[in-house]
Amino acid sequence: MTSVPDRLLTALIDGLHHSGLCRSVLLLPGFERLRWAIGRAGVRARFAQARRRVPAYATVVNERADAGIPMTDKRSYVQRFAIGQRCMDGVIPAHGVLFDESSGSSGRPTSWVRGTAERRANARTIRMGLSRRLVGSRPLLFINAFALGPWATGINLTMALSTMGHLKALGPDIDKIAHTIREFGETHHLVVMGYPPFLRQLLDRAGVNWHAFQVSFIYGGEGMSESMRALFQQRGVARVYGSYGASDLELNIAAETDYTIALRRLLQARPEIARDLVKQQGALPMLFQYNPAEFFLETTPDGQLLVTICRPGYLAPKIRYNIQDLGHVVRHAEIARVLTAHGVDITQLAPEVLDLPVLFLYGRADQSVSWYGCKIPPTDVQDAICRTPQLASRVDGFQLGTTEDATGDKRLVIAVEETSAPHDAWSAADDEVLLQALATVNQDFRESLRLAPADRTPEVHAYAAGAGPFANRDVRIKRQYVAS
Fold first, then answer.
1. Contact by Cβ (8 Å): 370, 401
2. How far apart are CA 118 and CA 120, in angstroms?
3. What are the pLDDT digits (tens) for 438-458?
4. pTM
């Protein structure tokens, strides 16, 4: 049974979203506290509505009567109940429904249901965010280089962009994208959207003089080091922005801005500031801004993100959904206070600094390797490779892993995939260059490398393109940076 106050709250929150205030007027400076309050109220409203109308969610709430607003996740909620049971009124509508499919990188693809209202709301958010960051006189031509098909980045992204500018959905096809850049590069601002590893391959193999055109990259699906972003821009890519989302939840929950990129670079350059803002020392998190009135983010005691979609109209609501990513949120006033204490004026970091909260994202909870007391996230290895010219020109991919002998001693193993371009054979000197570059990026690794016994130092295994652990890779599935 839902109380009258809960119904009134739901109606009020829905009215605010339907009016457009949450995504327009309330994004203006000075509404930080109100956005936050609407987000908190939105969690309560979505909870009350789902408890009343979603059979699967009502079951979970009844089972955990003392848990307040319960946490959900893929294993305990999505995989337990059929899609229909997770939908409003226990029914998948007969019309206007689109099914996305996750990539299956966790072992088995999962279908996600999307309704008309949520697709429209998401398209508006994507268009609004991109229009702020890609201002210019030339018409925009979006090239969707994500895997096409039933993936969220395929159909959903294509539909969202179709009314914003010109669009060509090519998928991860280097030759076709290169042809399109040459065909439209004189007249358009080209925006290529894809996974970071593919964008890197595109940069190296397309045979395009990137400085001759106005090209920007939008990436998603995984993080990117600042060294890789710098490499792209040195080679002629005008702008590089990331977007955070998930098939489980929604595309574009949060996005990089010029401000978050500047702040991230500041944290990398000034460790004393990072110590006051970063919770997992030694790692450089991705930084994104988001609207808490639309997506309310919380953190579990062990640092995993909980996401509530506060917008109305979602067929299968997600309330305090554990996405299995490590991260936390810092509000604008707190960041400004820390920066001021270190003599930095937050307003000078970028031309536009919105007072939205910043998401500090460390990646998947299971996507770091531990070795001799240090944690090594994939972005640190990517950073080490991209900032070292002799590695950046010949390494196309990598994978982290550990082995353990009969006595329990653990050894770190870094597998690297070389590009198909001609080069000298990988040598012990190359091993050392990679390890020292990683030691420069990751302070904890540097200390572990110093303390590790000589017979337990990390091993580097080099493979030809598409060989060893990199064989039979499916471009539709995210790369596995940690060996299973």
1. no
2. 5
3. 998 887 788 888 877 777 789
4. 0.83
